[in-house]
Amino acid sequence: MTALDAVRVPHARGGLPGVELRVSTLARLALAGTGGDRLRVTLTAASAALATLALLAAATVAAIEPPDLGGAGVDGLSHQYTNALLREPGLRPGVALVVLLLTLPVLALAGQCARIGAPARDRRLAAIRLAGGTPRQTVALAVVETGGAALLGVLAGVAVQLAARPLLHRPDARGRLPLPTDVLPSPAAYVAVLLGVPLLSMLAAAVLLRRVTATPFGVRRSATRRAPRPWPAALIVLGVGGHLALLPRVVGGGGASMVPFLMLPASALAILGVVLGVGWISATTGRLLLRFSRRPASLIAARDLIADPWHGSRTLGALLAAVLLGSGALVVRAWFVTTAEAHEAADAAYRELGGRPEGYLSFDEDFYVNSAESFALATLVALAVAAGGLLVALLERVFARRRAHSALLATGVPRGVLIRALAWRTLTPAVPAVALAVLIGAMLARGYAGDEVVVDGTLVEACEGAPPRCTAEVVSPDTVRPIDLPVVPLALLGTGALALITINLGVAARSVRTSATPGELRTP
User: Under DSSP, is residue 506 helix (H, G, I), strand (E, B) or coil?
Assistant: First the structure.
């Protein structure tokens, strides 16, 4: 079935020719198409399923009810869990927030999946316009396709969550659970997810198509050609600078509990600045390559960077956000480790002066370090998902430019030059952007943790002998430990992100070899 066969052209109001697309017709057109269209629908549904699982996980954590203070849980802790992050009510909102952050790279992956097979879909939309369809109806077709795929993904995600719950319910010998499998999200949460994810997907599709005009002669994009400006740097300065300037005042004024609410907008501004700044980095590096490079591959990449500098912002956004958050988690972990060392040294001095076997401080190193490592692990998961979105974007770009690559191939440009041009095009903005994300994440966390850990001394009775004789009261010395910046883990994080990009480039390079053929020039 073609697009023209599915459209009924009646006489519209006012005597003008129009078109009427029934819901059934919209559904048939959304499912019609080539293998690329079916792949787009499948990957969009898979991304929606992943987002549904993350949202339901956050809702499950939020659904944990505090124990009855009049019963066994008099301390207010949920002792049925082995993880302290789930036991303490004050920490569960942070856990839910971290899980919600994992939906961001998943949604970015969904946005990239929605672009697979875009040229064929654009030709189908143009055929509908040729049959009398209006621009609003062509947009409605794309929106229905995205919303339907998202709805299928949401239903699949809910089914997986309900099926996995009894499989993950594994209490230990004391009856404690590693995961909150004893609770379910509220019915309102299920309804919100079932309706919210498809609606957000449809809204995102409508926004992405707001500058696209499908005409009977093809598809025209009215995107601006204005070169990017370095104004995203102001967002970075505002986020990092405001955080570093306000943090001492908040902590000094006794508002330590407000620090997370200060870090959240600061991190959001910094992430937004880094993501939007990739456009300016791409345009600038493209101009530098065009001026100083003399190799064909780099010159092709330079022209491509200048022509579409915003491509890096669209493809690298989620990956850079994960790198920034992961960098901050590594610095916070180093702070926790140094704090544990300082407490241990202060306790050792206290025991030595007092001649006592016990200390005076307590610091749950395992809890804090494990919490930081759990957050770092979550960012690694987000990094892997973002890398999947980047791979989809690279393959979509190779597929969309296959005719341009074929034209270059027909004029004598070797395939190796095209592959190296793709590598220049991807890595040139990615390397400085990843380095910037690592640096900003470390700066935000460093501003929160500080440069050193200070443990104040305390009054202690100096005792010696057996039985001990306490002769005088002295003050144990202050313990100061500098917080070493985790240079090696930060370098590994940035290198790992670039390695994921390079692996994706290897996969995309094979697509260049198979898609760039002179026969593509005969394809209508």
Answer: helix
Neighbours of 144 (CB within 10 A): 18
Token pair in block for residue 73: 């849980």
Tokens for 340?
Answer: 């544990």
Tokens 């957000």 correspond to 200
Residue 487 pLDDT > 90: yes
How many other β-carbons are positioned within 10 Å of the β-carbon of residue 383? 23
Query: Of 119-123, 435-439, 455-459, which gets the smallest average pLDDT?
Result: 119-123
Structure tokens at 82: 């082995």
**Cis previous bond, 467, omega within 30:** yes
Would you state the pLDDT for residue 9?
A: 40
pLDDT tens-place string over residues 362-414? 677 777 888 888 888 888 888 888 888 888 888 878 877 888 888 888 888 88
Look up residue 520 and give its DSSP letter.
G
- Rounded to a whole number of angstroms, the CA Rg of the chain reads 29
Which backbone phi and psi does 74 adopt, to 5 degrees?
A: -70, -25
Sign of the torsion formed by the C-alpha atoms of 496, 48, 270 and 251? negative
- Write down the H helix ranges in 209-231: none
Report the pLDDT value the prediction gives residue 285, as an integer from 0 to 100.
Answer: 92
| 469 close to 302: Cβ distance less than 8 angstroms | no
Exposed / middle / buried, residue 99 (Cβ in 10 Å: 0-12, 13-18, 19+):
buried
Q: What is the rounded distance in angstroms from the CA atom of residue 433 to the CA atom of residue 279? A: 10
pLDDT at 82: 82
Q: Are 451 and 342 in contact (CB under 8 A)?
A: no
Tell me which residue of 194, 106, 201 sits closest to 149, measured CA to CA. 201
Ramachandran region, residue 424 (left: φ > 0; alpha: ψ -120 to 50; beta: rest): alpha
